[in-house]
Amino acid sequence: MEKLPKIALPVIIFFIVLIVLISKSAITIDSGEAGVLYKTFGGGVVTDEPALGEGFHLVAPWNKVFVYEVRQQEILETLQVLSSNGLDIRLEASAWFQPDFASLGKLHQEKGQSYVSRVLQPAIRSAARSVVGRYTPEQLYSSKRDVIQEEIFIETKKIVESQFVQLNEILVRDVTLPPTIKDAIERKLKQEQESLEYEFRLVTAAKEAEKVIIEARGKADANRILSASLTDKILQDKGIEATLKLAESNNSKVVIIGSGKDGLPIILGNQ
User: Fold this and answer.
1) Do 171 and 105 reside in the same domain of the chain?
2) Per residue in 78-113, pLDDT tens?
3) Residue 97 bridge partners (DSSP)
4) Which domain covers residue 214, as residue numbers?
5) What is the C-alpha to C-alpha distance for residues 50 and 99, in angstroms, rounded to an integer?
6) Which of 102, 135, 186, 199 is the most buried (most CB within 10 A)?
7) How many structural domains is the chain composed of?
8) What is the pLDDT of residue 1?
9) How far apart, in whole angstroms, are the C-alpha atoms of residue 37 and residue 45?
10) What is the rounded (10 degree) CA torsion for 37, 41, 43, 46?
11) Is 2 domain-assigned?
12) Over the Cα atoms of the chain, what is R_g?
């Protein structure tokens, strides 16, 4: 077998080295992720260029790429906070968030890949303690849950929006009170409900009674008006009208004019 030309060996070595460099320089960023480029000899973290998007990228082997998940994520926080009167409240809340893609380089430079524990979680805890401290246990348990959720979201967002984190939603999943306080609140709410039902029945009964009185007064007034209008002359005229109508009827009868009370006719029929 003939020996390879002297130039062939360097070429082969070159291609081997090239393949190794390419393999070390190639990076694939998956769906829902982005990469922050770190230039070892070029000023460190790149903050003035967009982050590397999904797909295949070639990066110099002496540089690094830090991959971040940029789709919406969720964390669950269980907090012990104090109400306005100093009682311990257990609050469970979850946060929907994602890093600010446009500022991903700055996020990596200033906060690093542990930004959730360094920025987001402390912000949620601070906001939750501040908000819950304004309300009583009864308000937390019943009517103010949605208001508290919105206030925690607003206060947390104010903190993290300058820290390159996008907060999408805060959801208060559960509020747990001390058992004795919870039982007392439930008894109070039950009593209030029963009181409201009793008041409703009283109001309904009063309205029904008022309706009956009004109807009775109307009937009494109608009867008085009718009695006042029925004079003897009117009754006589009505009697004459009735007599004339009966006289025109084909039924056999005897009509005696002027023999009844007050001069009204007496009608004798075949019945």
Assistant:
1) yes
2) 988 888 877 788 889 999 999 999 999 999 999 999
3) 73, 167
4) 186-229
5) 14
6) 135
7) 4
8) 45
9) 6
10) -10
11) no
12) 47
